[in-house]
């Protein structure tokens, strides 16, 4: 027997006992009257609390529990426990939902949810950016009323979502490429996932260009070598012509060796996951080495100056740093016309060591500067091969500086020359016989 029946029986038993007691003292009529009055009071008491419970259920307020005597107190108590348990479950679901939303918001991909009429139910911040939406303003709007690209509308209406849609657009002075894919779920609802693949396409384009450029760079000397070999094999040549042809063949073979060498250097830099060393370089010796090489390469065709802070040095892998700095000096000599000036400096800027090469060459158009460190990227293909470069020097510079957490800054103006500056981080910059700065 549960507590409700127990309490009801006990209540009736007490009423009967009291009525019998009243009857024993005051007679049967008084006892009956007393019993009727008590039943009426109990009825009004039950009606009052029934109405009170009705109001509570109609407009519940969490945490407020009415007090009452008897069975109604027990009802209110159990109702409070039930509400508390439900409230805890609701809060748990809300927290899980909040964490789920936060996780989707943190996703690098765009997520948009559509109802069965292709109206927007929800989207994260990335989807807002990709589609130009406002999650609050555009709620319950048909997505094709907001994203009106014809290819997107056709894709959404096709109901064939096995393949993703590629959307290209221009914005903020750069081209954006999005991949869009729809996943049906539930009752005709749709989940749209978007991803910005601009950098992936750029990387893939660079890979294709790299393969094409390597093929082209190696094809030219191979063609020259093949031509000369065929000539020497089939035609009678005097010693002067034979010597001239052999020298030209040696130049082309040397060019191929340099390309392969630089490719191997790049491969080693990219594949070496070990951090560069922390040995302090003898920058006085490095600067003397760079100056000697510059003078020999220029052969008196340029005015070259070297100015350096002999107390300033840097920590890192010596062969890598020397290779990067030498590439900058060599490029300045190769691309500066005869009679031009080249100024090389090694100095402190606040707490950083800075290596700069300034030339009076032809300068570089602004649109080419962001791509200078790409492999085989050439500003002027018609004259770049005449300089003897492989087209990989600045790519090597970029990878060396990345490994040393240094920065390459390029400033150039057409007809007025260029300045290439390498800024080493403070943690790698130091003064001889002094604490690191």
TrEMBL record:
Q: Which InterPro entries match?
A: BphY/WalK/GraS-like, HATPase_C_sf, HATPase_dom, His_kinase_dom, HisK_dim/P_dom, HisK_dim/P_sf, PAS, PAS-like_dom_sf
* SUPFAM superfamilies in alphabetical order: ATPase domain of HSP90 chaperone/DNA topoisomerase II/histidine kinase, Homodimeric domain of signal transducing histidine kinase, PYP-like sensor domain (PAS domain)
An example GO CC term for this entry is: plasma membrane
Q: What is its main location?
A: membrane
Q: Where is the Histidine kinase domain?
A: 213-428
Which superkingdom is the protein from?
Bacteria
Please state where this protein is localized. Cell inner membrane
Q: Name one GO biological process term.
A: phosphate ion transport
Which GO molecular function entries does the Swiss-Prot or TrEMBL record give? ATP binding; phosphoprotein phosphatase activity; phosphorelay sensor kinase activity
Q: EC number(s) in its UniProt entry?
A: 2.7.13.3
Membrane topology category: Multi-pass membrane protein
Catalyzed reactions: ATP + protein L-histidine = ADP + protein N-phospho-L-histidine
Keywords, comma-separated and alphabetical: ATP-binding, Cell membrane, Kinase, Membrane, Nucleotide-binding, Phosphate transport, Phosphoprotein, Transferase, Transmembrane, Transmembrane helix, Transport, Two-component regulatory system
| Protein purpose | Member of the two-component regulatory system PhoR/PhoB involved in the phosphate regulon genes expression. PhoR may function as a membrane-associated protein kinase that phosphorylates PhoB in response to environmental signals.
Name of the protein described by the UniProt record: Phosphate regulon sensor protein PhoR
Organism of origin is Caballeronia telluris
